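Lab meeting, item 3. Inverse folding demo.
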């Protein structure tokens, strides 16, 4: 099991056993969703876009549909709906930081109509986004039950406070490095801490982006700037020739509990 490997490697690196066990208390359950494996089908990449009449046509392509009733209890520590569908919209392009996608919850039994597969701003033309669409995964996704530990940054900058090591733990940086060495990545991740890139810790970065978006009029409402008030709902990793992108869907804890998925915020990490 990966936690046994993490524990053994941390001890081999000379980290005191008590500090290792303290770190292990941060473990969170998460769901890895892949197109392979023998786990149950819990959704699909792509597919038709069906939304209730009171929901506007999507601004971004549909990337993932999650069947909430297919998720076993406790597979994440998120208070997800027990039935209905979660639709995750987004696009793996470095076009900006603000609201680069949407989350729509469709309750079980809701009357829906089919919408355009390709949003107006993202046509599948050879001169525009055809190549991107061809890189997107398509088809059923299967569940693997897994666990998650934090990635923490190794540098603290005034303009990037989310890069600070986890406060109060003397070996946070070293233990995060152990986890990074063991973590194999995921095509689609539901819950957990998510994959941190060099200057991009998912929940903290999304919180910062959401606050900035409100200040600049790109988003309504009032969001908390504190990372602990946000959770990672999902992430999708898209490989493209010579580049890659990670799309993160985050939401405030209170909004998730109230199923206010229109308050979710989406950010893209672009890795050329």
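The presenter then showed the designed sequence:
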């Amino acid at each position: 099991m990966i936690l046994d490997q993490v524990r053994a490697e941390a001890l081999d690196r000379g980290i005191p056993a008590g500090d290792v066990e303290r770190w292990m208390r941060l473990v969170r359950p998460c769901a890895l969703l892949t197109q392979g494996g023998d786990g149950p089908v819990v959704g699909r990449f792509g597919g038709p876009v069906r939304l209730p009449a009171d929901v506007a046509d999507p601004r971004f392509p549909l990337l993932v549909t999650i069947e909430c009733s297919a998720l076993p209890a406790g597979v994440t520590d998120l208070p997800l709906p027990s039935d209905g569908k979660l639709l995750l919209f987004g696009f793996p392009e470095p076009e900006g930081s603000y609201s680069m996608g949407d989350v729509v919850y469709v309750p079980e039994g809701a009357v829906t109509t089919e919408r355009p597969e390709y949003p107006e701003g993202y046509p599948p033309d050879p001169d525009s986004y055809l190549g991107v669409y061809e890189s997107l995964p398509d088809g059923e996704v299967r569940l693997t039950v897994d666990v998650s530990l934090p990635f923490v940054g190794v540098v603290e900058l005034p303009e990037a406070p989310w890069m600070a090591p986890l406060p109060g733990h003397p070996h946070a940086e070293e233990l995060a490095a152990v986890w990074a060495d063991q973590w194999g990545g995921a095509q689609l991740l539901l819950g957990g801490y998510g994959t941190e890139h060099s200057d991009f810790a998912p929940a903290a970065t999304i919180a910062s982006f959401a606050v900035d978006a409100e200040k600049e009029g790109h988003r309504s409402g009032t969001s908390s700037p504190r990372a602990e008030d946000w959770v990672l709902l999902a992430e999708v990793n898209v490989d493209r020739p010579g580049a890659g992108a990670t799309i993160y869907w985050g939401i405030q804890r209170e909004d998730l509990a109230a199923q206010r998925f229109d308050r979710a915020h989406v950010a893209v990490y672009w890795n050329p």
